[in-house]
Amino acid sequence: MIHPEYRVQGDLSTPELQETLTPVYPTTEGVKQATLRKLTDQALDLLDTCAIEELLPPELSQGMMTLPEALRTLHRPPPTLQLSDLETGQHPAQRRLILEELLAHNLSMFGVTRWCTTFPCPAA
């Protein structure tokens, strides 16, 4: 363990417990975990003030978490969350984001294919 993060606890009779699990993000040189957590906190705070448009059609998203719920769950997981579900990619929050990313990718590929057939390149 290199450079662990810690906090000095003054009064040992009542330790401060976090309400969520602490995620560990992949880092880039010069960017610390604390910085990444602060940035995700800012982004999650924006979810409270800015409405995010649901891009999934209702027939695909029925029974799934909303996008803000999925983002909050993954970036600030509750202590009751099954870590095995996260490790295997089976958590409903992950599945919600996976579906949206796959749909966005397929739609963009459809657009590129359509553009290429509409505007074919001249033969060399």
From TrEMBL:
It comes from the Bacteria. GO terms for biological process: DNA repair. GO terms for molecular function: DNA helicase activity; hydrolase activity. Keywords: ATP-binding, Helicase, Hydrolase, Nucleotide-binding. Transmembrane segments: none annotated. SUPFAM superfamilies: Nucleic acid-binding proteins. The keyword Transmembrane helix does not apply. Its EC number is 3.6.4.12. It is an enzyme of class 3 (hydrolase). This is ATP-dependent DNA helicase RecG. It comes from Escherichia coli.
